[in-house]
Write a structure and sequence with these properties.
Length: about 325
C-alpha cells in the first residue's frame, strides 16, 4: 500500500462530547497530503459509552492500515513516582531512579533566574520540581524550547498530573490498553503551530489570536490556508469549516500532521542522555530553535511586540 494514514486525537473528558479525531492520508511518492475526515464531538451513543465509541472510530480507520500512527494531545506516560515500586521513598534529592536523577541534574543546570527577570528567591521556587506530577519532558520543554519562542507566543505547559491534565492522563492510560498495536505519539499543537510559523510566514498577531473566542475563527482560517498552500495539503470545504470553527478539530488536525512530520524525519529527536521511556513530545524542527533568527522570525517578533491588546480567554 502506497499511502500512509495518520490520526490526530484531541482528547477531552469522557463525560463531555468534545473529543475529536482528524484523519490524514499521505502519499509519499507524490508528497501529497489529504485530510480525509474530521470526527468532532465523539461521545456516548445508544450502543456505546464514550470510550467504546472512540475506540470504534479508531479501529474503523485502521482497517487495511496496520501501520497507522496516532498523535494525541494527552500525555502517554506517567510521572516517575507513579511507576515507582520501591517500598520507601528516598525523596527527589536522593532518588536513584534514572528519570528523577535526570530531572535533578537538568534543574541544577537551568536556574530559572537566568531565563527571565525574576529574583533568585522566586527562581528557587520555580526550580523545585515534583516528580509525582511532572515528567522530564516538561522540564526540557520549559528550559530548552519555550525559552527560545518569542515572548508573546509562549504559553503555559500543564503538568501531566496537574489539575488540568490529570483526568485526560488517566483516560489516555486506559485507552492505551486498547490501542497497543498502534504507534502512539504525544503532541502539543500550540508548539507545532509556533514552530511552523517561520516556514509558513504566519504573522505574530495571528499566532496570538488563533485560540481566542472572537478572533480565533479568522486566525485559524489564515493558518490552515497557509498550511494547505505551503505544505500541499488538500482540505475539503466541509472540513475547512470544521477546522476553523472548532478549536478541538484544529488541534486534532495539527496532531496528525505533526506525526506525519515525524515520519518524514522533520521533528526534533530527544537529546543524548534523555530518559526516553519517561515520555517525549513530537515537535517540528524550526528556525525558531536556532541561535540566529532568520528575517521572518525577527519580523514576527517585532509584530508580536507591537501588539498590546490584552489576551482573551483561550478556547481550549
Amino acid at each position: 500500500m502506497n499511502q500512509k494514514r495518520y490520526l490526530g486525537l484531541e482528547l477531552s473528558g469522557a463525560k463531555n462530547a468534545k473529543t475529536t479525531i482528524a484523519v490524514l492520508e499521505y502519499y509519499p511518492k507524490e508528497q501529497k497530503v489529504f485530510l480525509l475526515d474530521v470526527h468532532a464531538g465523539i461521545g456516548a451513543d445508544a450502543t456505546a459509552n464514550p470510550d467504546e465509541a472512540l475506540i470504534e472510530i479508531i479501529m474503523e480507520h485502521a482497517d487495511e492500515h496496520p501501520d497507522l500512527r496516532l498523535g494525541t494531545t494527552a500525555p502517554l506516560t506517567l510521572p516517575p513516582c507513579m511507576n515507582c515500586t520501591r517500598k520507601a521513598c528516598l525523596a527527589a534529592k536522593n532518588c536513584a531512579a534514572n528519570e528523577v536523577k535526570w530531572m535533578k541534574l537538568f534543574t541544577a543546570k537551568h536556574p530559572a533566574y537566568l531565563r527571565g527577570k525574576i529574583s533568585k528567591k522566586t527562581a528557587r521556587m520555580r526550580d523545585f520540581f515534583t516528580p509525582y506530577t511532572q515528567r522530564p519532558v516538561e522540564l526540557f520543554l520549559k528550559g530548552e524550547v519555550f525559552s527560545k519562542l518569542p515572548e508573546k507566543i509562549r504559553f503555559e505547559l500543564d503538568e501531566t498530573l496537574g489539575a488540568n491534565k490529570a483526568p485526560l492522563t488517566a483516560r489516555m492510560h486506559f485507552l492505551k490498553l486498547h490501542l497497543q498495536k498502534f504507534e502512539l505519539h504525544e503532541v502539543l499543537p500550540k508548539l507545532t503551530v509556533a514552530l511552523l510559523s517561520p516556514k509558513l510566514k504566519i504573522k505574530g498577531t495571528t499566532l496570538q489570536h488563533y485560540r481566542k473566542l472572537e478572533e480565533g475563527v479568522q486566525a485559524r482560517q489564515a493558518i490552515i490556508e497557509k498550511m494547505a498552500e505551503g505544505l500541499d495539503i488538500f482540505i475539503y470545504d466541509r472540513d475547512m469549516k470544521k477546522l476553523t470553527q472548532n478549536i478541538n478539530a484544529f488541534d486534532a488536525f495539527i496532531c496528525a500532521y505533526t506525526v506525519l512530520l515525524h515520519d518524514r524525519n522533520e521533528c526534533v529527536n530527544p537529546p543524548k542522555g534523555f530518559p526516553v521511556s519517561s515520555g517525549w513530545v513530537r515537535y517540528p524542527k524550526s528556525p525558531l530553535l536556532s541561535a540566529i533568527p532568520d528575517a521572518h522570525l525577527q519580523k514576527m517578533m517585532n509584530d508580536s511586540e507591537g501588539d498590546n491588546e490584552e489576551d482573551e480567554e483561550d478556547e481550549g
